[in-house]
């Protein structure tokens, strides 16, 4: 591919008032309007004073900019060009939005979190965003250090990663039929302990998930940083299951040593996993389980004594020195969980005798209740892939960096980034099966960042899009689905 012209035969002019660069914002913000984003923002976010006026318009402007790929306050200006004013009303300037964000306190951030939870519930009603949440929902907890530059940022500190940053604590909800959505976030100082405030965030995440339609069982998963008695007892008290990586302290090692040799069973990974200690891919391992009582110290963990299953995986250490292998050596990984064990029960489904035998539907009642060792282990093993994927998408979008020097403003930016993530995931669900599980960076490139010319004929607006656009069918399907006339009452 090469230029079809000489250097002197081409020039540029930015003078067409009818062009827009992000035509995909039309269906995205229409979906946000249908879910009541602006109205909810005006109702729930109350900053007071002239700065806090028209909160719905200002928050909608931020969300539209983030959906288009803005990762700073100045980047929000991309929603004010060409024909955008003919497609949207109430667009605010970046300077206005920046002043608005700097007015936030942590109490106002809590209002944003409530807005995000309410909007997620409405998006779940309008789209198949959380399909399958009535059967099993996976609630993942994790934290991430985001590097910042400049010591003037409130809360920035050197944490366990050794870089100057801010700590993001988040909870995501995943169903078997969909991609993760964000149900709770909290911004913390860069040197915050992983365990700090995790119980209150998990409680809020459970409430948001239930309100969004996750009426089935919920399984909360986390790494060893969340092996906290307060969190685990709270989850059990709220009727949720937990699956938390157990640290290798003496009580856990004693429980592992008590497992008999014949209890170990072979476990083969469908997709090999990386051993962080050796850098080698693990294809097979051995798994077993036992019972363990944790948090038995009444002084350190009052009222938090918990007995549950301890799942253990062991992998063979194959590295040898010049003496060779004197005896088998293993590396252990343990998971503390209250997932119910598998128990066999009779099939209670009666066959449908009104149909021929060859067309009878398959039995819908499972033959087992609960989770055997291998299934419970696989459920926990899939944890990191879900929430790490969300962190990567945020880092490739609005959280490429935190834009303000004020802690509360950055916390508000984080909350709005989570809201925008959920809005784009709902949009992807309406774009068809090809995009329902795609990355948000791909969604932006294919369906949002599309140049268009805005034309008007007889009070009707038409978006003239590029000819031979590879994803024209998906965009048309998304547009017509969201702009379909409402059903009669």
Can you tell me about this structure?
The chain is built from 15 helices and 15 strands. It has helices at 25-34, 37-44, 55-67, 84-87, 94-102, 106-126, 198-211, 229-237, 250-257, 373-381, 383-395, 407-430, 433-436, 440-448, 472-482, and strands spanning 19-20, 137-147, 157-158, 164-174, 181-188, 218-222, 241-246, 265-274, 281-294, 306-316, 330-337, 343-344, 368-369, 452-457, 460-464. Strands 2, 3, 4, 5, 6, 7, 8, 9, 10 and 11 form a ten-stranded mixed β-sheet that branches.
- Can you give the mean pLDDT? 89
Compute the number of strand runs: 15
Order of helices and strands: EHHHHHHEEEEHEHEHEEEEEEHHHHHEEH
Query: Structural class, from secondary structure content?
Result: alpha+beta
* Radius of gyration, whole Å: 26 Å
First-to-last CA distance: 55 Å
Percent helix among the residues?
Answer: 25-40%
Number of helices: 15
Beta-strand content estimate = 15-25%
Biggest pleated sheet: 10 strands, mixed
